[in-house]
Write a structure and sequence with these properties.
Layout (H helix, E strand, L loop, with lengths): L7 E3 L8 H5 L6 H7 L11 E2 L10 E9 L6 H9 L5 E5 L11 H10 L3 E4 L6 H7 L3 E3 L13 E3 L2 E4 L2 E4 L3 E5 L2 E5 L4 H23 L6 H9 L7
Length: about 230
């Protein structure tokens, strides 16, 4: 590299979905969203509610503000907090680095004070009792008391690979006890358009199960038309 990159780059214009688009994801389970995207959309299952979800809310939704940190880095997260707005979800990418925290209780407290809806990282966190006291919902890959650095380089407001999926600033994030799902900005309206039908189908199936459904009709049909068969 001929020249060192800037320590921190912050995108001037942070795109966000509209208020009505954001509100459409309130109380929507992550499974419904994956169903609306051909069964996909979730980040790696190692990213779970901090502490297993036992002490903090386990549902959050909002537009992503992506902080692309390097391993053991936090400078970009600091920049993301600086430009965050109420309702945003700050996504800290640390390239999946382990054995170092990507945020702790004070960061969570500051984010909570700014009105940030949640924090998501492919790294680990620390200061669990303080995180609980701050009250900010968070998803991470576990806990580590080791401290990060703030040397950079880092980028804010662009995109990064987190948990095996590329997340662009402005994408919708919905997280619950099952995990974290990203809805690409370009697909937000299409996903919203499917939610009512998905909820109707789920509700109908729930009612059938509660009323005693115990057969797999699709398997019976396959056996009947020969696409499946019974063998000894």
């Amino acid at each position: 590299m001929i020249e060192e990159p800037p320590k921190l780059q912050i995108r001037k214009t942070i795109r966000r979905p509209g208020a009505d688009q954001i509100a459409a994801f309130r109380d929507i389970p992550t499974g419904f969203l994956c169903d609306a995207m051909e069964g996909q959309g979730a980040l790696c299952s190692t990213i779970q509610p901090v502490g297993g979800g036992r002490d903090l809310p386990t549902h959050a939704y909002g537009p992503a503000v992506v902080a692309e940190n390097g391993p053991a880095e936090i400078l970009a997260t600091m920049g993301a907090v600086h430009v965050s707005q109420p309702g945003d979800i700050i996504v800290s990418a640390v390239h999946g680095h382990k054995n170092c925290s990507a945020a702790g209780d004070r960061f969570c407290g500051i984010m909570k004070n700014r009105g940030v809806a949640a924090f998501v990282t492919d790294g680990q966190m620390r200061d669990y009792p303080g995180i609980v006291a701050a009250g900010l919902p968070a998803w991470c890959a576990g806990l580590s008391p080791n401290s990060p650095y703030s040397n950079g380089p880092g980028k804010v407001g662009f995109g990064a690979v987190v948990g095996g999926r590329y997340i662009e600033t402005g994408d919708m994030i919905v997280a619950d006890v099952d995990g974290v799902v990203v809805i690409p900005f370009s697909q937000i309206d299409a996903v919203i358009a499917q939610l009512a039908a998905i909820q109707e189908l789920e509700t109908a199936l729930d009612a059938k199960v509660q009323n005693g459904l115990s057969e797999m009709a699709a398997i019976e049909a396959m056996l009947a038309d020969g696409t499946a068969k019974l063998v000894d």
